[in-house]
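Hi there,

I know you've been waiting on this one. I reran it after we fixed the sequence typo, so this is the corrected version. Both the input and the resulting structure follow.
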Amino acid sequence: MKKILMSLLAMFVVFTAGNVYAGDSIKIGVVASVTGPASFLGEPERNTLVMLEDQINASGGIMGKKLEIIIYDDETEVNKAVLAADRLIRRDRVQAGIGGTTSGNTLAIMSNFTRAQIPLVSMAAAERIVNPVNPWIFKTPQSDRHAVTRILKHAKAQGYQNVAILTVSDGFGQAGREVLRELVPEMGFNLVADEIFGPRDTDMTSQLTRIRNQSPDAIICWGTNPGPAVIARNRQQLRLDIPLYMSHGVASRRFIELAGSAAEGLLLPLGRLAVAEQIPDDHPQKGLLLDYISQYEERFNAPVSSFGGYAWDALMLIKEAIEKGESAEPKSIRDNLEKIQGFVGTGGIFNLSPEDHNGLDESSFVMAVIEDQDWKIVSE
């Protein structure tokens, strides 16, 4: 009798595990910084996901099932991101996750999804999210390495030799710093200054003064708002004429608003979403980008940003994986994410594989300059 009961129990466990995700809806959990210091990133992400949920359900859902997106605001706090991830996994029983908004919060929640064996697609850029490869973790933003390479190739074409770097002390900034310290000498430049600022610092004149004393040919700033905008204004106040490159972490109109006239002439790598009107008509991304811009701006009466695009790519890649595998079971989603090739997204054309959980390369960026409070492509 005991053996029979044990067998029945084992069968029940297997049956239950196989049917946890067999409901009438497909649940995708999201951890985003809708409020707090990174809200200028997280709000367009949240808006984009809400818009897509409505569009997908209006067109019949995914494989005939309703899409249910559960979004928790981590308020740009690491502990709240971890609690939200745990809630999505344990209480909401999501089949896949999207998040976090920032690199630090993503790095903090990765282990939650890995232990639960639920795929997570991050909206943050740090290379460490996907390198080394974690079987359950993916990301949509272009990697630091691709952005740094783009910047340094442009700097080399200008004949610059001596480079200074100025990076924020958070997860995104220090991940970028690691790549900068690796690639600056590797690509033939001299690293003459290496300064750091805090995410909440309101004046960086001391760092810029020390950099000026080293006479660099160019400065590369790595961070997200508001720090880089402060640096741009401090540079203007100090009347520094040293060329200043920014990272893709400021690829939103908010940066231009914060920096004001100090943004003029700054250079940075951009995804094509920010300059969709300027890319050739035959580029495979152009139609998608213009459609997304039109839909978003009509619904929210606000400009799109690259960060909302990262959310678009995350959800649509998960949808593609579900349809490819004809299953919303987490392992199937994970397996089929790795098989996606030639997927046209807002951030580029994704070619994922077991060895590459980002699927983009440096061609997903253009180099742009800020002129007349707008982006202008300087090189494809």
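Quick highlight: The radius of gyration is 22 Å.

Best,
R. S.
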